[in-house]
User: Fold this.
Amino acid sequence: MDRSRFIYSALALLLCLGGTYAVRAHLADDWSDRALLTSRSSPALRYNLVPILCFHNVDGKGPYSVSQAKFREYLQQIRDAGIRVIPLQTLHKAARENRLLTEPSLVITIDDDYKNIVRVAAPILREFRYPASFFFYTADILNDPRWGTSWEDLRRLHAEGFDIQNHSYSHTIFHVRLPGESRREYDQRLHREIYTSREILQREVPDANLYAFAYPMGYFSDHLRDRLIEAGYELLLTTDSRPVDLTARFNGTFDRYTIQKRFVRNPEAMFHRQLQYALRPYDPDARDVAAD
Ligand SMILES: [Zn+2]
Assistant:
C-alpha cells in the first residue's frame, strides 16, 4: 500500500469509528438509557408492542398513586428487564411510519397537577435518565393551585427536557353534553377545554410543542375526538390499557396502562404484563392483544 492510500485508509477508519461513537453518544443523550448501549436483544428481532405507562402522584395515597419507593422500584424493573424508555414523540413517529422498533421499549407519562410529580417523580426520572411526558390541566394551576404546581415548575420541567402536554382546562367530563346543557353552552365549554387550555399552556411555556391531548379520566367520544383533531392535536391518549401495536394502522390515538393499586386484583402482575408486552418480539402469527 502506498503512503497516500495508507493515510486515506487510516482516515476512513478514524471517521468510521468517530461516526459510530458520535451516533451512540447522540442516542444515549436522546434516549437517556444505557440499555441502548448494552442491548441484549438480537439485531434481527423487531418489536411491535409498546406499552405506555400512566402514573399519577407518587405520595402513595389514593388508588392511582404509588409510593416514592414503588415508583423507583418500577423504574428499576424496567431497566433490569432490558427495556429502554423512549420519548412519546419517538413512538408517535414510529406509529405514523408503521415502523417496528429494534429494542424492547416503553413510554412513561404522568398525569395531573400534583406537586410531588414535579418535586419527587421528575428528579427520580432524571436520575434514571428516562424521558417522560407530563399532562397538565390548566385551571388548577391558574386559579387554585391546591396541588401546589406552578408555571415555574412547568417551565423548569420543559427546560430539563421533559415533554409538557395538555390534559384539558378543568379535568371534568366533557365528552358528552350534560343534562340540560344547550348545544351552544356545550360548544363554549368544549372550546375552553380544547383551545383555551392550549393557549394558556403555550403562553406559560412558550417553547413547548403541544401536539398531544390526554382525555381526563379516559372519557372520550367520536364527537370529542373529531373536535380535537379539528383543533390540530396530532395524538390523543386514552386509558384503555392496550399497548401500542406498531403493526396496526395508526389512527391518531394511543391507549395507556394506568398504574393503579385498587381496581385490579394484582397490580404487580399487571405491571409485569406491561413489561412482557414490551419484551415480546414481533410475531406475525400472534393474536391481537386485548385490553386488560
Ligand atoms: Zn387526569
In short: Residues 111-112, 167, 171, 216 surround zinc ion (CB under 6 Å).
